[in-house]
Amino acid sequence: MKQRIYITRKISNEIVEWLKQFVDVKMWMEEETPVPRAILQKEIREVDGLYCLLTEQVDRELINQANNLKVISNMAVGYNNIDIEYAAKKGIAVTNTPGVLTETTADLTFSLLMATARRLGEAEQFLREGKWTTWSPMLLTGQDIYGTTLGIIGLGRIGEAVARRAKGFGMKIIYYNRNRKPNVERELNLTYYPFEELLKTADYICILTPFTDETKNLIDEREFKLMKPNTILINTSRGGIVNEEALYKALSKNQIWGAGLDVFDEEPISADHPLLSLKNVVVTPHIGSASIQTRMRMAKLAAENLISVLQKKQCSFIVN
Ligand code: DGY
């Protein structure tokens, strides 16, 4: 008898057909709505593998419902939605999809940086609302990018890819990371700065560190106070790394100049969230890795990870 898996969202037929060669597949058939928790709690009971997204909270309670589960394959590089330690205790492997989304996420990070610096959202709205009556010298003026300093917090794969882009734009690049990376420093001409020094120095700060207990609220009131009034903060990692109340205060008091945000504490962010009332914020709905090609690569890699674990083959993307 084939092993069984549950997929928590409708994914491409091509991948489902590929999976069906190895396992019996059951799938939540909606593309835009996450599987309700009660259904997931029922479905997880007998399956050998769970293929899930970052919208599913795979916590202790859910893991405890599973009787046969051997692998949880997350279609994302981040896995803060899964209690990986508890899964390990239960002998369940958790896998993720690093690498395949690096360049795409770096593209979006740099796009947000540029959009915030040059007020693209505001400018587009201004034009669409028929407010453009004449060219004028200081209309919608933003910040320069060339010749400024980018501070990268978290120099993983995506951090390095953002640094490569910034280099092409003539930026000076400084970074903070738990471990220094001398080879990358040499290759990309980066300078390591202690955390607080980076906050005081950078014109642009990109948050690219994973979300963990250590990085929760890493950027809070105290950190905003250290930043310069022209600082632009970009977050394409996870919302919880930046305290949103403190961010709102910093932006509305013009303690910093702007923010480009792809991720939020609660997703989806509600349309009446105070942050969305501010003009100096550019927002996108967690689309860092959202190119057609990359989302297909992530979906395929998540499928391959799941099958490798079920077939007891070598899998390089087990995170616990
Ligand atoms: C991830 O993979 O963790 C992103 O947030 C979604 O691509």
Q: What is the fold's blueprint, element by element?
A:
Blueprint: E1 3-7, H1 13-20, E2 23-27, H2 37-43, E3 49-52, H3 60-65, E4 71-74, H4 84-89, E5 93-95, H5 102-117, H6 120-128, E6 149-153, H7 157-168, E7 172-176, H8 182-188, E8 190-192, H9 195-201, E9 204-207, H10 221-226, E10 232-235, H11 244-252, E11 258-261, E12 281-283, H12 292-310
Parallel strand pairs: 1-2, 1-3, 3-4, 4-5, 6-7, 6-9, 7-8, 9-10, 10-11, 11-12
Would you kindly provide a written description of the structure presented here, covering whatever features stand out?
This protein has 320 residues and is of the alpha/beta class. It has two domains: 3-100 and 292-310, Rossmann fold (3-Layer(aba) Sandwich), CATH 3.40.50; 102-283, 3-Layer(aba) Sandwich (Rossmann fold). Helix content is 35%, strand content 15%. It has helices spanning 13-20, 37-43, 60-65, 84-89, 102-117, 120-128, 157-168, 182-188, 195-201, 221-226, 244-252, 292-310, and strands at 3-7, 23-27, 49-52, 71-74, 93-95, 149-153, 172-176, 190-192, 204-207, 232-235, 258-261, 281-283. Helix 8 links the parallel strand 7 and strand 8 (190-192). The longest helix is centred in the C-terminal third of the chain and has 19 residues, at 292-310. It is globular and about 70 Å long. The two termini are 28 Å apart. It binds (2R)-2,3-dihydroxypropanoic acid (DGY).
